[in-house]
Amino acid sequence: MIDQILIGVIIFGALVLFVWEKWRYDIVAMMALLIAAILGLVPSSEVFSGFGNPAVITVAAVLVISHALWRSGVVDELAVTMKRVGDNPFSQMIALTALTTFCSAFISNTGTMAIMIPVALQLSRSGAGHASRVLMPMAFGSLLGGTITMIGTPPNIIIADLRREALGEAYGIFDFTPVGLTLAIVGLVFMWIFSRFLVPAKQSRDMSTSPYDVSSYLTELYVPPETSLVGETLYELESRVQENFSVVALKRDKKLITAPPRYQRIRAEDVLIIEADTETMQEIIDVTGLELNAEEEIDDRFLISDEIQVIEGIVGQDSRLIGRSASDMRLRHRFGVNVLAVARHGQAGKPKLANIRFKPGDVLLLQGDKEILGDVFRRFGCFPLAQRSMRIGGEKKIFLPLGIFATAIGLSAFGILSVPVAFTLAAGAMVLTNVMPVRELYENVDWPIIILLGATIPLGSALERSGAADSIAQGALMVSSGAPAAIGIGLLMLVTLLLSNIVNNAAAAVLMAPIALSMASTLEASPDPFLMTVAVGAALPFMTPIGHQSNILVMGPGGYVFGDYWKLGLPLTVVIMAVAIPVILWVWPLAG
User: Fold this and answer.
1) For the packed helices 505-522 and 154-167, what is the interaxial angle rounded to 10 degrees?
2) Which of 14, 34, 125, 233 is most enclosed, with most CB atoms within 10 A?
3) Are residues 330 and 375 in the same domain?
């Protein structure tokens, strides 16, 4: 009994710290594991056994393959076809959510979203629709797509491996498809019909449809003494550039002139605060000779590079930038990277840009050497948006990675090789064929997820070994005593869904799976419906932005706030539960 209380306190404490977000989730999970080991709840021989678990290896391999497919342009080519769907906002939403859902069945949710967000923003402009109306359904569609195959989301991989431990045979790659595909279709249809009423339309102050439109970015441009623009008026500046933009303020010495008149003459060393999109900003710089306003000298090695690029990206929920500014991080001095603009929840950040403290979901516009920018994004936990990314302009290899990926799926689907072996071989083949450079192999594994899995798997085993999982299962069965088995399944799914909305979905799967197995054992029923219930519940956190990275990725571009998610997420969760329980029991009956 003491062991049950101790492991319960450790796991509950870890959950509190996950929600608090004072420390990153992988650090919390590792500390929880070490405390459990010190207290003797996890045998010393098993403390690090989780890192050798096939589920961990499979997740790492899938992350590598996903990046290789993204880098090769496979998903990008699919995204380009979306531009042919026309200007009708409803048609655009159907096409975007359907494609996002399909791609997420085979490629990581976040990778798919990074490709699709810029496409959605561009289509939203052409269709005169609000980007916010489509971005949240796309994010939820990516989660639904992950339930379709075993490799679609880490919870499915974890559940498949736990079944191997419990029954001696893991789930196959398409064993999740009957349930997952049904839920994906139902979820998509629900969003197509009702999202227009449940997703708020967010507008910036200039009625633009996204933070990437004209006048979405505020950027400081310095007037060097040698430019021909000195002595001209703002009207003459505007006449030089064909595209629309606005000079919203002018800084002269210590004076700030807001909304300067068009006859205002420009002096040397003025700083103009320009509101424009990225392409127009580049044209202004090229035509006028104005310079990006930098407070520090950029190292020579960045100035001489032929690979200087502008990249848009989103601050992730675990980013090291959160709560800090560009000045704090000394991005210019340390990396030669300029923060050109910041857009927050659909609104452009206000000057002074260097002092804006970043929040999850902020959209950053960075300039620098493409390799350095790639390192900065990875180092600080940000997601580069495609169409501005390092891959654009590079050689595309579409058929080779698709062939490797299809081969891995075939080998695992027909039982020739196990999923971990097949996908590890595929990841290696991507590197050997130079689809993905060796230097990017380890850089694109989400190591915090790997650490989280490796640490929580032994904790899940301790939960089962101590009898705590059985006690929780007994409690759930007492609550649903006398009711049909579907009630117990529903209770299990409800708890898993709530948990996955506040902690990492992989951790939710690891912690709830032993409870599911205990419930099945107590009822002398097949464990399959209970494991599938946990897989579905862990994979679909719709109600909060922190439930999944796909949700946080759309927060900035869509202009959402925390409370916007439950408006669509709660009814969608209810619908998914209502459909999932009978479908699971039909596909995976209790009698096994």
Assistant:
1) 30
2) 14
3) yes
**What tens digit of pLDDT does each residue of 171-215 get?**
988 999 999 999 999 999 999 999 988 888 765 333 333 333 333
What one-character DSSP code corresponds to residue 221? E
Give helix then strand counts, H and E, for the chain: 25, 10
Chain centre distance of CA 502:
15
**How many domains does the structure of the chain reveal?**
3
Is 340:365 a contact under the CB 8 Å cutoff? yes
CB 159 within 8 A of CB 205: no
User: What is the distance between the alpha carbons of residues 208 and 367, in angstroms, rounded to a whole number?
Assistant: 24
Backbone angles phi, psi at 321, to 5 degrees: -80, -20
Co-location of 314 and 363 in the same domain: yes
Residue 233 domain flag: yes
Please, which residues bridge with residue 246 across strands?
275
Q: Is the dihedral of CA 12, 16, 21, 23 positive or negative?
A: negative
If pLDDT is split at 50, 70 and 90, which confidence band does 435 have? confident
Q: What sign results for the dihedral spanned by CA atoms 157, 159, 160, 165?
A: positive
Going by pLDDT thresholds of 50, 70 and 90, the confidence category of residue 114 is low
* Residue 303 pLDDT > 80: no
Residue 231 lies in a domain: yes
The structure's pTM equals 0.66
Reference 51, options 346, 372, 452, 365; nearest CA is: 452
Is 2 within a domain?
Answer: yes
Domain for residue 402, yes or no?
Answer: no
Is 83's pLDDT higher than 90?
Answer: no
> In the Cβ-directed half-sphere of 138, how many Cα atoms lie within 13 Å?
34
Mean pLDDT estimate for the chain: 79
Q: How far apart are CA 80 and CA 86, in angstroms?
A: 13
Round to whole Å and give the CA distance between 187 and 307.
43
